[in-house]
Design goal:
219 residues, alpha+beta
Length: 219
């Protein structure tokens, strides 16, 4: 059996089962059986298309295997959404969960051993490039997505500021830091690393650092 931990914008996709009766109402990482002779990655892609009507790409695998019943174990792939939006077909509900929400739902037992590592994956710092213009941010998002990375643009906003203030635009991505840093430099933005759950603070001033002047007379 294979399951898919589909990660987008720092959250993972969970699906709620409707059958069999003992599993109804409980949550799982969507997936299913690997057909005879089928590659496990291909099985993940096929199962997600059948169950949720979306297409994913496998980017890696979580460690370990979890027993389901004698002779049957579950492996879980990390994946990104590449086409379509998940819509429940064999489930009755889907939900995106962040690291601090993983224990808000009642998971099926075979999925539970994967939650600690999945939580660490979701909590990884994400590179951010901040730009003055929305068009610039959206152009960077389009380029990163064309390269196969997850990326999105969001409006910068800080505590105490009004919604109608002229905020910059941030591009958040799972691309390597060096890639976004290069794109940011080329487009006159500034680079940051976003740690999920940290307090939001204004983007750093881009000018030169102040001089370190002596505080007492030199002798």
């Amino acid at each position: 059996m294979v399951g898919a931990a589909v990660v987008r914008r720092g959250a993972v996709l969970a699906a709620r089962r409707t059958s069999p009766p003992e599993a109804a109402g409980r949550w799982e990482l969507p997936g299913g059986k690997v057909e005879p002779g089928e590659d496990p990655e291909a099985a993940v892609v096929r199962e997600l298309t059948e169950e949720l009507g979306c297409r994913v790409e496998v980017t890696g695998w979580l460690a370990g295997r979890a027993p389901i019943r004698p002779g049957l174990v579950l492996a879980v792939a990390l994946a990104r959404l590449v086409d379509g939006e998940p819509e429940p077909v064999e489930h009755d509900r889907v939900r995106w969960l962040r690291a601090d929400e993983l224990h808000d739902v009642d998971w099926l037992e075979p999925d539970r051993p994967f939650l600690p590592e999945l939580g660490r994956v979701l909590a990884r710092p994400q590179a951010r490039g901040v730009f003055d213009e929305r068009d610039t941010a959206e152009a960077v998002v389009a380029l990163l997505r064309a390269e196969g990375y997850d990326a999105w643009a969001e409006r910068e906003a800080f505590a105490g500021e009004d919604d109608d203030e002229d905020h910059a635009w941030a591009v958040v991505t799972d691309a390597p830091d060096v890639r976004l840093e290069l794109l940011t430099e080329e487009r006159d933005g500034w680079f940051d690393v976003d740690v999920p759950g940290r307090a939001t603070e204004p983007a750093p001033f881009r000018g030169p650092a102040p001089l370190d002047l002596p505080r007492s007379p030199r002798r």
